[in-house]
Amino acid sequence: MKLPSSRWLRDNCPCTKCLHPITQERTVTLIDVPDVRAAAVNTDSSGALTVDWGDGHIGVFPAELLAERPELTTAPVGLATVLRLDYSELDTAVGMQRWLETLLTQGAIVVEHTPNVDGEVVRLAERIGYARPTNFGTIFDVRSKPDPNNSAYTAAGLDLHTDLPNWAGPPDFQFLHALANEATGGDSTLADGVAIANALRVSEPKTFEVLATTPVPFRFHDSDDDIRFTCPIIQTDAGDNPVAIRFNNWIRDIDPSADDTFYDAYMVLWRMLRDPANVLTLRLAAGDTLCFDNRRILHGRTEFDPQSGRRHLQGCYADRDMVESRLRKLLL
Ligand code: OGA
Ligand code: ZN
Ligand code: ZN
After folding, report:
1. Atom of ligand 1 nearest to the CA of 313
2. Which residue's CA is the nearest one to ligand 1's atom 2?
3. What is the C-alpha separation between 4 and 266, in angstroms, rounded?
4. Distance between CA 29 and CA 19 in Å, rounded?
């Protein structure tokens, strides 16, 4: 959703101070509000917009009210759905082809009924070629750990991100196999970062340019490693088309000399990523392996309560070269 200006929001505030509860007519007069400035604006998962005016009153714009204003609604960008495939279909060339083609074209697919066996996610990647090792190993366990070296290994919610933007070559594809997902919370979120970048290029070319040219330093460090790479958030090809995205709030730095131009652009992107219309939420059941393009699709999860039930995912990565190679061989 496009965010209306503070003045429009105050002028149309649906609270009982600004809109008469019975006549449904406006009672606020803009000229009598000397300093129209929202102290905080929040969108919740229902799409409702809450504006705290900082003067003791709060306006809540229900999603239905905003939906009546087509000028404010933007067409959803990117992933509308995630296709699913049964693990048993991978025993056939047709199933393998559908898996890999969907991964390459749609950017994401869920393999259902993956055997609930330790290490299965790597064997899945080995149907393509080799799992790509990183500083987290060839396979990594995603669960709430006592001494985490990574936000993913806590119970915290993870905002949309790409993995390992701090590497010169981040892994192309990621597979996340749910062995157990019984905790409250822990739903998965996905957004098509390249589609969003494309939409941004059309709607706000200057913002796009800032995000495609300002170098952002990414860094992971723990007791064993210190891995750094500096690169703009949006990667473009020679024709200025977005081809990949690097986005990870907890392992990025921002140059202290960054000015409002960068922060404004960065916030525009954040707003698009927080727009429920652009985010697909799904819940992995035990046996589901979420496979996605880590250069194009951002992923995240909602916070979970580790006391409420077990949540254990195993993950690994794969390179595009092998995905394309396997598909070519299947098509021979
Ligand atoms: C990760 C990650 C998502 C999840 O491990 O990189 O984003 O659902 N995990 O726990
Ligand atoms: Zn009001
Ligand atoms: Zn991740």
Report:
1. 10
2. 152
3. 18
4. 11
Q: What's the 36 CA to ligand 1 centre distance in angstroms? A: 40
299 lines ligand 1 (CB under 6 A): yes
Run means of pLDDT, 10 residues per run, the chain, 332 residues: 83 93 94 85 81 90 85 82 98 98 97 98 97 98 93 95 98 98 97 97 95 96 96 96 96 87 94 93 98 98 95 98 98 90
Which residues line ion ligand 2, judged by CB < 5 Å? 13, 15, 17-18, 59
In one-letter notation, the amino acid at residue 123 is R
Residue type, 206: K
- The three-state (H, E, C) secondary structure of the chain, written as one string: CCCCCHHHHHHCCCCCCCECCCCCCECCCHHHCCCCCCCEEEECCCCCEEEECCCCCEEEECHHHHHCCCCCCCCCCCCCCCEEEEHHHHHCHHHHHHHHHHHHHCCEEEEECCCCCCCHHHHHHHCCCCCCCECCECCEEECCCCCCCCHHHCCCCEEEECCCCCCCCCCCEEEEEEEEECCEECCEEEEEHHHHHHHHHHHCHHHHHHHHHCCEEEEEECCCCEEEEEECCEEECCCCCEEEECCCHHHECCCCCCCHHHHHHHHHHHHHHHCHHHCEEECCCCCCEEEEECCCEEEEECCEECCCCCEEEEEEEECHHHHHHHHHHHHC
Protein residue with its CA nearest to atom 8 in ligand 1: 301
